[in-house]
Amino acid sequence: MPATVANNEARQVTGLAEALGRSLRHELGDFLQKVYATVAILETRLPSEWRTEREILARLRERAEGCRQLLDEIQDFLCPLTLNCQSMDLAELAAQLVMDVRLRYPHLQVTAQDDGPARISADLIRMAQVGEILLANACQAAQHEVTLETTTDASSGKVRWCVCDDGPGISAEVSSRLFRPFFSTRPGHVGLGLALAQKLVLLHAGRISLANQSDGGCCCEVWLPAGSRASSLLPEGETAT
After folding, report:
1. Which of 128, 139, 142 is nearest to 69 (CA)?
2. Which residues, other chains included, contact 214 with Cβ-Cβ below 8 Å and sequence gap of 6+?
3. Per-domain boundaries in the chain
4. Distance in angstroms (rounded) separating the CA atoms of residues 174 and 71
5. Strands (DSSP E) along the chain, which ranges?
6. What CA dihedral angle connects 15, 5, 182 and 101, to 10 degrees?
7. Residue 93 contacts residue 131 (beta carbons within 8 Å)
8. Separation of alpha carbons 168 and 175, rounded Å
9. HEC string of 176-227?
10. In CA terms, which of 8, 114, 124, 175 is 20 to 30 Å from 33?
């Protein structure tokens, strides 16, 4: 097959995937807004003593929020992204993310560690997205503890995020497929989180890896340029501003 034909077909497939992602988010997003509104109305009208009904509404709202997050991940993974880079402290962001995660996983000991400010040039929203994905994965696998460590390596000029858990670790047969889209070892999970995290890290000219720890559990490492612009590894058609 001539290269030009193959390239045209690849662009058509990419365009179709982008259109599908946007259409899903639009159509299902409207439905989810109706779910949110219905839950809010019912919560104001139900008697306070109707605890079972209120618990059902709370679970419905939680499931709707999970669907909304999945739609966002699908669109972000399929569509080109533009970064809004600014100077930020990765250690400060890590501390905030850990505080938020503690509320969702009160049974775990989730801590943030750092060796001081770790400044990079990055998109704050997208880096928060990466952190949320990695922390959620770690918390779902952990038995007792999750740690998000931020360090700066002056010799290499890079900043390191390390998310570790004390869970069972990853098996050899799935380790090579962890960053593949739509691959998951957990029932009910679509398997886009790590694939999206990898895309966002690459957009910031960084790298990401995941491996078992020698003393048990799993550790995901993200390396990013300290204080540099995210431009060198942008996929075709995607830009950093």
Report:
1. 128
2. none
3. 3-79, 83-240
4. 25
5. 82-83, 86-89, 109-114, 119-122, 145-153, 158-165, 207-212, 218-225, 239-240
6. -50
7. yes
8. 13
9. CCCCCCCCCCCCCCCCCHHHHHHHHHHHCCCEEEEEECCCCCEEEEEEEECC
10. 124
Give the integer Cα–Cα distance in Å for 229 and 219: 26
User: How far is residue 20's CA from residue 26's CA, in Å, rounded to a whole number?
Assistant: 10
> pTM value?
0.75
Pick from 195, 82, 186: nearest CA to 141: 186
Rounded-to-integer distance, Cα 163 and Cα 121, Å:
21
Cα(160)–Cα(147) distance, rounded to whole angstroms? 13
- CATH class of the region 83-240: alpha beta
Say if residues 196 and 76 touch (Cβ distance below 8 Å).
yes
Residue pLDDT, tens place only, 140-175? 999 999 999 999 998 889 999 999 999 998 887 777
61-91 per-residue burial string, b: 16 or more CB within 10 A, e: under 16: beebeeebebbebbbbbbbebebebeebbbb
- Joined tokens for residue 162: 């390390």
